[in-house]
Design a protein that fits this description.
- The protein is α+β, with helices and mostly antiparallel strands.
- It has three domains: 2-57, Arc Repressor Mutant, subunit A; 64-254, Bira Bifunctional Protein, Domain 2 (BirA Bifunctional Protein, domain 2); 262-305, SH3 type barrels (Roll), CATH 2.30.30.100.
- It has helices at 2-11, 18-25, 29-41, 83-92, 140-158, 216-220, 226-243, 249-254, and strands spanning 45-49, 52-57, 74-80, 99-106, 124-130, 163-165, 169-172, 175-187, 190-200, 262-267, 272-280, 286-289, 295-298, 302-305.
- The longest helix is centred in the middle third of the chain and has 19 residues, at 140-158.
- The chain starts with a helix and ends with a strand.
- Bound molecules: biotin (BTN).
- Biotin (BTN) binds next to helix 4, strand 5, strand 8 and strand 9.
């Protein structure tokens, strides 16, 4: 009921009477009033007078009813250990494709290679459960599409020049804006689910924790709405997952990367490699040309761009 009430209030020029709301929504005026009180308690600025209700302001919180058409697939928590844990539980219980767990902050946010992901209030932290009909060996394509689509969405929304760094970071001027982590479970030779976890520095300040990081607020000089970013991104990503030929994604991604043709250091769980990044192959592996001229393919790791 919250979604239709908010829709009617935000569409109205001025005040909407309780009587009109109850007639149009087919519920009692008392029920309308109860929902309005709940919305007010959640931070919606709704004035009430003898003439009715008026929506003056909405909080920037990704409550499920802020996502018409996907309300039942948005699971919002003000605080979680990690959206990856909650999403894994839901995925194992059979939740639908594109179920999205989002947290206002995380107490044990995690990054690639067992790193911690600082998740202070103001950032956007979410995990999308995906159920593509793919063999596990091709699952990397989904992560590449996720990061590519995010870079494009942010560029369209804010006129920025967000680029991708191998494997899945988003950078602006060499500063990290977003990180992406994928977890997969398979049954026989098909993917059961791929959970794509994304952390975006939006209105938080990551610079004190990780000096080479930035946020949308720092780049734009103003706060931006996390719920708008999530809505735009999920729509774009779901549309691409339904329509796009995943076999072209690496080519597209390469046109968007700042990792190629430069000297890099790549840290994996076992080794550290240095060399020139010359390609990303059809398996998503980074191809390094080492000092002795040999080529080294790396499937997973953390990549550090050396200064030019
Ligand atoms: C990285 O750059 O190492 C990946 C960072 C991924 C962070 C996101 S925030 C939402 C989701 N929940 C987590 O605990 N991690 C991912």
């Amino acid at each position: 009921m919250k979604a239709p009430i908010l829709k009617k209030l935000s569409k109205a020029e001025g005040t909407v009477s309780g009587e009109v709301l109850s007639a149009q929504l087919g519920v009692s005026r008392v029920s309308v009033w109860k929902h309005i009180q709940q919305l007010q308690a959640l931070g919606y600025e709704i004035t009430s007078s003898a003439r009715g209700y008026r929506l003056k302001n909405s909080p920037d919180v990704p409550y499920s009813w802020e996502f018409p058409g996907r309300e039942s697939r948005i699971i919002y928590h003000e605080k979680l250990t990690s959206t990856m844990d909650a999403a894994k539980d839901l995925a194992r219980k059979g939740c639908p494709d594109f179920t999205t767990v989002v947290a206002g902050r995380q107490t044990s946010g995690r990054g690639r290679l067992q790193r911690e992901w600082h998740s202070a209030k103001g950032g956007l932290y979410f995990t999308v459960v995906l159920r593509p009909d793919l063999p596990p060996v091709l699952s990397f394509r989904v992560s590449f599409l996720a990061s590519l689509t995010l870079a494009r969405t942010l560029n369209e929304m804010f006129g920025l020049d967000v680029r991708v760094k191998w494997p899945n970071d988003l950078l602006v001027d060499e500063r990290k804006l977003c990180g992406l982590l994928s977890e997969l479970e398979a049954e026989a030779d098909r993917v059961a689910f791929i959970n794509v976890g994304i952390g975006i520095n939006v209105n938080n300040d990551p610079s004190a924790i990780e000096p080479p990081a930035t946020s949308l607020k720092a780049l734009l000089g103003r706060r931006v709405a996390v719920k708008d970013i999530l809505a735009r991104y999920l729509d774009a990503f779901e549309q691409r997952m339904q329509t796009s030929a995943l076999d072209r994604v690496i080519e597209e991604w390469k046109a968007y990367t700042v990792t190629l043709n430069r000297d890099v250091r790549v840290v994996t769980t076992r080794d550290v490699f240095t060399g020139k990044a010359v390609d990303v192959d059809d398996n998503g592996a980074l191809v390094l040309q080492c000092a002795d001229g040999s080529l080294q393919k790396i499937l997973y790791g953390d990549c550090f761009h050396q200064t030019r």
